[in-house]
């Protein structure tokens, strides 16, 4: 028995088919050496798989020698959980010739250089900021990199979400039904996560607007990463909340407690939104120069403060601000309730434009 086991001890198996396996993908390899099983280091081990392979290597039939069925390699399967994988013998653990071993070492070295470059790009992205270098190195092993030419469809509305996409270089656009661009995304931005999280079809088509390099994380690996690194769940949750608020703003709605970035909506559009909705409340702005407050009663501006500026002067100054964060809060202090409007918003805007023309 001992001699039979020695014959089978060193080998590599490869996954050839996968159906809803929660861990492994097609192409993953399992290595047996000295009766020890190793799986890709960036993935967890599976007790079901360990038991199946233990049965294989203790079998009296060879899995790497003479084929058992009609000249074809024997195919093994693991279906211990809800998923299923098929795998087959690939090769002996060690290469037969020095030339083959040298070729494998060269390929592995090139792959490592590629991953090192990949790692450097990902290290600078906000999404991975919370991961330490070891965790990020493991995660890069799960990513595929793809370059897509300009004016190509990346994902199509109505399709089932299959990947999380990270823009490494270039730009993509979210497209409306009429072919117009809703918004654009550039380096470091993420898309495709909504469909993966909800299980719903993709809500909008996304096209490239320049030659674009993407990092892609499959649906299965996405779930694995979120489970292994819970801190990424917090990042995604925050990002989803911010996107939902932006979509709400663009649809013409604003609610108490809503926050956002002026990079997504200008102060002019924000003030017009409150005007058209006839809201009574306060906008707080955190800007590079300092803080500002604008009070509305039924959509009319009744008071504004920005640095030493007040009312119209403050509003005119705020119209020029392009970056910062805002928060809308429902209601105004009682002492401001009886203040008259400082002027209709359109009137103030016309006055400002006239002043610019005169200058």
Overview of the structural elements:
By secondary structure, the protein is α+β, with helices and mostly antiparallel strands. The chain has three domains: 2-92, no CATH class; 143-245, Jelly Rolls; 252-358, no CATH class. The chain contains ten helices and 19 strands. The longest helix has 26 residues, at 98-123. Mean pLDDT is 78; it is low at 1-8 and 65-71.
In a nutshell, what does this entry contain?
With 359 residues, the chain is of the alpha+beta class. It has helices at 2-8, 47-57, 98-123, 133-140, 193-198, 219-228, 230-250, 267-277, 311-318, 345-358; strands at 11-19, 29-33, 36-38, 75-78, 84-92, 144-148, 153-155, 163-169, 172-175, 181-185, 190-191, 205-208, 212-218, 259-261, 281-286, 291-297, 300-306, 309-310, 325-330.
Radius of gyration based on Cα positions: 29 Å
Order of helices and strands: HEEEHEEHHEEEEEEHEEHHEHEEEEHEH
Structural class: alpha+beta
Per DSSP E runs of 2 or more residues, the count of β-strands stands at: 19
DSSP helix count? 10
**Mean pLDDT, nearest integer?**
78
Taken together, the total number of domains comes to: 3
Reading side by side through the largest sheet, how are the strands ordered? 14-19-15-16-17-18
- Uncertain parts: 1-8, 65-71
Give the distance, in angstroms, between the N- and C-terminal Cα atoms: 98 Å
């Amino acid at each position: 028995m001992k001699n039979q086991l020695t014959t089978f001890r060193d080998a590599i198996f490869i996954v050839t088919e996968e159906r809803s396996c929660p861990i492994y993908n097609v192409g993953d390899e399992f290595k047996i050496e000295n009766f020890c099983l190793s799986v890709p280091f960036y993935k967890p081990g599976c007790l079901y798989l360990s038991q199946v392979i233990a049965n294989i290597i203790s079998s009296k039939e060879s899995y790497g020698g003479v084929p058992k069925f009609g000249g074809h390699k024997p195919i093994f399967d693991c279906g211990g959980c809800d998923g299923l994988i098929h795998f087959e013998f690939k090769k002996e653990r060690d290469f037969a010739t020095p030339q083959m071993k040298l070729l494998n070492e060269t390929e592995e070295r090139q792959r490592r250089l590629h991953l090192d470059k990949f790692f450097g790009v990902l290290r600078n992205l906000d999404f991975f900021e919370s991961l330490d270098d070891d965790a990020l190195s493991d995660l890069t092993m799960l990513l595929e990199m793809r370059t897509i030419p300009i004016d190509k469809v990346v994902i199509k509305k109505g399709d089932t979400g299959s990947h999380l996409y990270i823009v490494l270089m270039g730009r993509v656009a979210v497209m409306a039904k009429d072919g117009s661009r809703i918004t654009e995304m550039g380096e470091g931005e993420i898309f495709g996560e909504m469909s993966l999280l909800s299980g719903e079809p993709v809500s909008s088509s996304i096209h490239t607007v320049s030659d674009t390099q993407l990092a892609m994380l499959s649906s299965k690996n996405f779930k694995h990463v979120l489970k292994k690194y819970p801190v990424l769940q917090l990042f995604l949750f925050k990002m989803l909340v911010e996107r939902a608020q932006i979509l709400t703003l663009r649809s013409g709605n604003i609610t108490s407690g809503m926050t956002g970035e002026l990079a997504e909506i200008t102060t002019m559009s924000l003030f017009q939104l409150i005007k058209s909705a006839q809201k009574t409340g306060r906008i707080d702005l955190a800007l590079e120069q300092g803080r500002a407050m604008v009070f509305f009663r039924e959509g009319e501006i009744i008071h504004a403060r920005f640095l030493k500026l007040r009312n119209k002067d403050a509003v005119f100054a705020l119209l020029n601000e392009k970056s910062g964060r805002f928060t809308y809060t429902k209601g105004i202090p009682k002492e401001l309730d009886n203040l008259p409007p400082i002027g209709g918003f359109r009137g103030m805007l016309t006055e400002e434009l006239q002043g610019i023309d005169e200058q």
